[in-house]
Sequence to fold (200 residues):
Amino acid sequence: MAAKRGNQTVRSMFLSMAVVVAVAGAFYLVNPHDEDADPLPAVDYRVELVTAQRAAPYPVLAPKGLPKTWKPTSVSYARQDGDSWHLGFLDPDREYVAVEQSTASARKYIADVTHQAENTGKTARVGGETWQRWEGPKYDALVRAADGATTVVTGTAPYERLVEMVEALESDEAPAPGSGSGSDAGDGDGAGPDSGSGEA
Fold:
């Protein structure tokens, strides 16, 4: 009798599991789902951008006119952390590109946001401005010190995508009178725009 009751218990358990699986399967089939849906949604950074442009002591940059295949994925502004502005994107090939700006010590700041990239000693003219070329094991970057801040365009994307981002950058605020590209944002440690050995 005990063995028979045990067999019935096991049989009941398997039947219950079958019912649960069937219900779950039916629920999955009835509810619409998109297997190609992107798990990383785009962010609307307009409010944060306006806030940063009002608060930061330098012209805050953001891209204008990029194709819709560029997806904004992250944004932040931290006044207490060197007035740091961050805006992250995925490019059309789903590689990462970020715009980083801050009044913090340039050497440490660049190392942090580029994951220890190093200055190649080369420069490039992009959008009418001189940018340093940095390269690293994880991120490459274009770096410029101007208007009281260090600007870094960095990420896993190839150099051409970094250039595309730089060319799209604009600010709704004009630089303060008398400020120029030779600001002290480089801290004299080689982060200034003139520290390269020549254009690439």
About this structure: The radius of gyration is 26 Å. DSSP finds four helices and ten strands in the chain. The longest strand covers residues 118-126.
